Amino acid sequence: MLVSISIVRYRILFIPFAILAMAIHRIPLYFNKGCRFWKLMGCGKNGSFDLQPDWQQWALLAVWNSEEEFNRFNENSFIAWWWKQFTQEHWTLLSVPIASHGKWDGKEPFKLDKYETNYTGPVAVLTRATIRLNKLPQFWANVEPVAEIMTKAKGFITSVGIGEAPFFRQATLSVWKDMESMKAFAYGSAEHAEVIRKTRKLDWYSEELFARFRLLSGSGTNKGIDPINEIQQDLLKAKQ
């Protein structure tokens, strides 16, 4: 299993093509037998759960049967051709799941027979939820301060806010230098722990998923930079 997350930035004049892509790109993905799960999503402006959409930036998360299937898509697909024509930037992160719990539209897209338990290197974390409509004010009042704290945490590399629908179907992908840094924030931050407590006590979500991934590689740029440039050498060493 290989997981790809592609973040593409459209030219301003081509924003209508970005919106159109959310509809027509479903067709080739639906018929791609090498892709077992996929989600086309929009992006927030500030790198986490965000009320303000970035109309230029969009995302595709996909789970592939093999690296060969991903390469075939990345090199020859209609979607790859579309991105070359209408986008100005394209960043893709490749990874494999090491832990996952919860569901996404009733499915477990990252489920493995056995998860890695001793991994300590660079890690990506996906937190995804469908927020109950009657809980939206409580959720948004609490989540933004935690997002600000995350960006200042030790070992934090970058994050992207993604979602299938504004306000209530939201996700955050964050990248960390190592597992220790990620766990220090997840379990050591009082603010983050409080939000988790409220999530359970107040029943904010009708569905949620939390997954961790071992990073394999990254390519391209997002907003003019390679987001994981500082850990690329660590990834190369891990491959050798």
Describe the structure.
The chain is α+β, with helices and mostly antiparallel strands and 240 residues long. The protein has a single domain, classed as Alpha-Beta Plaits (2-Layer Sandwich). It is built from eight helices and eight strands. Helix 3 crosses helix 4 and helix 5 runs antiparallel to helix 7. The longest helix has 15 residues. It starts with a strand and ends with a helix. The mean pLDDT is 88.
Architecture in CATH? 2-Layer Sandwich
Task: Indicate the proportion of strand residues.
Answer: 35-45%
- What is the arithmetic mean of pLDDT? 88
Please report the number of helical segments.
Answer: 8
List how many beta strands DSSP finds. 8
The helicity comes to: 25-40%
Apparent shape: globular
Radius of gyration: 17 Å
The side-by-side strand order for the widest beta sheet comes to: 1-3-2-6-7-5-8-4
CATH fold name, please?
A: Alpha-Beta Plaits
Query: Could you list the spans in which at least 5 consecutive residues all have pLDDT below 50?
Result: none
Distance between the termini: 20 Å
Main CATH class: Alpha Beta
Query: What composes the largest sheet?
Result: 8 strands, antiparallel, barrel
Main structural class: alpha+beta
Q: Report the order of strands and helices.
A: EHHEEHHEEHEEHHEH
Number of domains: 1
Element layout with pairings:
Layout: E1 2-10, H1 15-24, H2 26-31, E2 35-44, E3 53-64, H3 67-76, H4 78-86, E4 87-102, E5 123-131, H5 136-150, E6 156-165, E7 169-176, H6 179-188, H7 190-202, E8 205-220, H8 232-239
Antiparallel strand pairs: 1-3, 1-4, 2-3, 2-6, 4-8, 5-7, 5-8, 6-7
Helix pairs in contact: 3-4, 5-7
